[in-house]
Write a structure and sequence with these properties.
Layout lengths: L3 E3 L3 E3 L8 E3 L5 E5 L2 E5 L24 E5 L5 E12 L2 E2 L4 E2 L3 E9 L7 E7 L8 E4 L5 E9 L4 E9 L7 E2 L15 E7 L5 E6 L4 E7 L8 E8 L6 E4 L5 E5 L28 E7 L10 E6 L3 E9 L4 E11 L3 E2 L3 E6 H9 L2
Antiparallel strand pairs: 1-23, 2-27, 3-4, 4-5, 6-7, 7-10, 8-9, 10-11, 12-13, 13-14, 14-15, 16-17, 17-18, 18-19, 20-21, 21-22, 22-23, 24-25, 25-26, 25-27
Length: about 350
């Protein structure tokens, strides 16, 4: 009943961790864990001993941190600081009661050997984030969520740095309303479009991702409207590939050939929503997200969950697809889902060539 199905285009990815991963300019491969940064000389098959970074990194929580290397070589890590994590919700009044999960950043100027400028970027309660990029102008931009009050709900914004993570500023708030600790605008993902604008896809309980456009590098988001990408109440992950295509992995609103019932979430949402997470879908866009090649389901876990995805581009046209949460029926632990798919083989398959 709980047997996992994998699309024949995909094969097992032989790496030990779920990411995040990074190709460094010196050719090394890196990942960050709670115990520190590790390096690999063989693409993730084996790893060095960790170099400690800081307290507060939680590698058991997917999409709670990400890192990049700037054009000049600085490694910048953005993370949710679990050192003094608290979450207590007043369900009767629908308000955050005692909640704390701050966004912090830290950076390395010597390839990960030492780390400096550990600082708070955003206070309050902020959950998982799915976008952290350096734009063509050199600005660092992350798309993040934030819990607010009256009524308690989630909003999204951006944080950005023009000095390689030494200091940070915040963009404007995107508020879609809602009521509950899992309602509103949530867990956004991010990509830079070819014309320099930034594009954010936002998790909602409204059957579709909503989208926001910034024309000034993430400082202001002035165009906010629904996308045409159906989605359950689950986050997606965008990635710009070397080919120029955009990749997206996410949980669609309904399973293939069926309808997933919407359910109540007391204290979490104002209205019933789809929590379909049994199938993880993948698609590519060749026109900056205006349209998408036919999506495929890369994996199914009937009665379970494959969600909170991560995308990474390996070598030789490999796209890595990883599920942060993997559960069998009844939320019983399930084996990790770490897959790879060849970009050009996928394109030929969905185009029928």
């Amino acid at each position: 009943m709980n047997e996992r199905w994998i699309h024949p285009l995909c094969s097992e990815l032989k790496v030990e961790f779920n990411g995040p991963f990074l190709w460094l300019k010196d050719g090394r491969f890196a990942t960050v864990r709670s115990e520190g940064i590790r390096f690999s000389e063989d693409g993730g098959l084996s790893w060095s001993e960790p170099i400690f970074i800081c307290k507060g990194i939680n590698d058991k929580e997917p999409a709670s941190y990400d890192f990049l290397q700037t054009k000049s070589g600085t490694i910048v890590l953005l993370y949710l600081n679990f050192s003094d994590y608290r979450f207590e919700w007043d369900e009767e009044n629908c308000e955050p009661k005692d909640c704390k999960l701050e966004i912090w950043s830290i950076r390395s100027l010597d390839g990960g050997k030492t780390w400096v400028d550990n600082q708070r970027v955003m206070e309050g309660y902020n959950a998982n984030f799915f976008g952290f990029i350096q734009t063509t102008t050199g600005r660092l931009v992350a798309s993040v969520e934030h819990t607010t009050s009256n009524p308690g709900r989630v909003v999204v914004t951006s944080v950005y740095s023009d000095d390689e993570g030494k200091s940070w500023k915040r963009g404007n708030i995107i508020d879609l309303g809602g009521r509950g600790h899992h309602d509103g605008a949530m867990e956004p993902t991010l990509a830079e479009l070819k014309d320099g604008r930034l594009w954010m896809l936002i998790r909602t309980n409204l059957d579709y991702f909503w989208q926001a456009i910034s024309e000034d590098g993430g400082r202001y988001w002035r165009r906010i409207y629904p996308s045409e990408i159906d989605a359950s109440s689950s986050p997606g992950k965008l990635l710009r590939l070397r080919s120029g295509r955009l990749a997206l992995v996410w949980n669609r609103l309904n399973p293939e050939g069926g309808v997933y019932p919407k359910t109540e979430f007391k204290g979490g949402t104002e209205f019933p929503a789809s929590w379909h997470r049994e199938e993880l879908s993948f698609a590519l866009s060749e026109d900056d997200g205006k349209s998408w090649l036919r999506p495929i389901v890369v994996a199914k876990q009937k009665g379970g969950q494959l969600s909170y995805p991560y995308l990474f581009e390996g070598k030789d046209g490999e796209i890595w697809i990883i599920a942060g949460f993997t559960f069998a029926s009844g939320r019983k632990p399930a084996p990790p889902l770490r897959l790879k798919i060849n970009e050009e083989e996928f394109v030929r398959y969905v185009k029928g060539k």
